[in-house]
Amino acid sequence: MGNSKIYSKIIYTTSPENELNQWIDKYEKGKVFIATEENVDQLWMPQFNSFLDKHFIRKVVVTSGEKNKKLNSVTEIWEFLSKNGADRKSLLINLGGGMLTDLAGFAASTFKRGIDFLNIPTTLLSQVDASVGGKTGINFNGLKNEIGTFKEPVAVIINSRFLQTIDPENFLSGFAEMIKHGLIKSPAHLEELENFNLKKIDYQNLQEIIRHSVEVKEYFVGHDPTEKNIRKALNFGHTVGHAFESFGMGQKNQALHGYNVAWGMIVELYLSVKECGLDEMECTKITNWLLSIYGKMNIEKDDFERLYELMTHDKKNEAGRINFTLLPEIGRIEINQHCNKELIFDALEYFRTIQ
Ligand SMILES: NC(=O)c1ccc[n+]([C@@H]2O[C@H](COP(=O)([O-])OP(=O)(O)OC[C@H]3O[C@@H](n4cnc5c(N)ncnc54)[C@H](O)[C@@H]3O)[C@@H](O)[C@H]2O)c1
Ligand SMILES: O=C(O)C(=O)C[C@@H](O)[C@H](O)[C@H](O)COP(=O)(O)O
Ligand SMILES: [Zn+2]
């Protein structure tokens, strides 16, 4: 995958506490803090409690769920840090899924103009994607990740044992970002995902597959940390996926991020055929696979204008044009692809009617 210039140290371990020991030593006693969210606090914090006590690490717990990836929750973390005497040299440990690592990473990257943070991701999605690469942020104004920063954690500690308590839907949500990694860079990774038994998860094998996925992410982040160029590859499926996700925000059964990305990838694979010459049979094969795992979201023709409007907020856009990352073939990307409104509507119609 080539030399990575990623700033964070990525550590794979079965004993996060042992790894943490060495990191904590670099910081003054009483200046290390931990942020988590309710569900993870209940499920996984008990195993860390004596460690936290021993090292005088104080804890803040925010409310779980994507709808809490918002400014109020950031304020809670800022207040906690401020009241507990955090200074510029402090460390914040973020224990949780992508919602928490995005949120608390953002809080850390802005507190006193930025303090160190370390991620311990607890969902598949956060292990293969969200905790790595330094995109932090919150949703705002009905738009995904509208406010945020680029700041990499000092380290990411990955332990696949956390995944044993993940529900199947959240597992599949993370699996979608892995499929994205295979599609944009690694046919070999895609193949191992196609062969992965989702009904009977082999956690030992999974740890290795997670590593392959993270390597794809590291490659793009290492070469372009602030998404000026080829990091846009990692946004494949997200121009449309984020529009779907923002569209569903606040609805009762809001679909998980990875599901929206999977559906976004179906639309963007169609665009790849039309604009970049992706083989139609290849597109159909992957689309059918994605549909078999993720089903699909129901959209109406009347929704197309709103979805298009949401795409006009995508962060990759330039000069008023919607910017896509597309695939001329599996494992290769073309960034800065512009599709006209008519073609985007065609692609949405393809998605709406596909069985
Ligand atoms: N920064 C990035 O590069 C990046 C990349 C991909 C996604 N994201 C963001 O990540 C977020 C989605 O992350 P997510 O899918 O991890 O969601 P999440 O953090 O909301 O976690 C999903 C659910 O699993 C629960 N949970 C967490 N760890 C658990 C565990 N070990 N066992 C049981 N339950 C557990 C949570 O409480 C929550 O209910 C989105 O906001 C998305 O935009 C960011
Ligand atoms: O790391 C990246 O770069 C990505 O685009 C990874 C995406 O999976 C992730 O959802 C990211 O948060 C999207 O970022 P945004 O800039 O489109 O909000
Ligand atoms: Zn994503």
UniProtKB/TrEMBL annotation:
Residues 60-171 form the 3-dehydroquinate synthase N-terminal domain. GO terms for cellular component: cytoplasm. The lineage of its organism: Bacteria, Pseudomonadati, Bacteroidota, Bacteroidia, Marinilabiliales. Its EC number is 4.2.3.4. Pathway: Metabolic intermediate biosynthesis; chorismate biosynthesis; chorismate from D-erythrose 4-phosphate and phosphoenolpyruvate: step 2/7. Keywords: Amino-acid biosynthesis, Aromatic amino acid biosynthesis, Cobalt, Cytoplasm, Lyase, Metal-binding, NAD, Nucleotide-binding, Zinc. This is 3-dehydroquinate synthase. Its cofactor is Co(2+); Zn(2+); NAD(+). GO terms for biological process: amino acid biosynthetic process; aromatic amino acid family biosynthetic process; chorismate biosynthetic process. It is an enzyme of class 4 (lyase). It comes from the Bacteria. One of its GO terms (molecular function) is metal ion binding. It catalyses: 7-phospho-2-dehydro-3-deoxy-D-arabino-heptonate = 3-dehydroquinate + phosphate. It is found in: Cytoplasm. Catalyzes the conversion of 3-deoxy-D-arabino-heptulosonate 7-phosphate (DAHP) to dehydroquinate (DHQ). Belongs to the sugar phosphate cyclases superfamily. Dehydroquinate synthase family. Residues 174-317 form the 3-dehydroquinate synthase C-terminal domain.
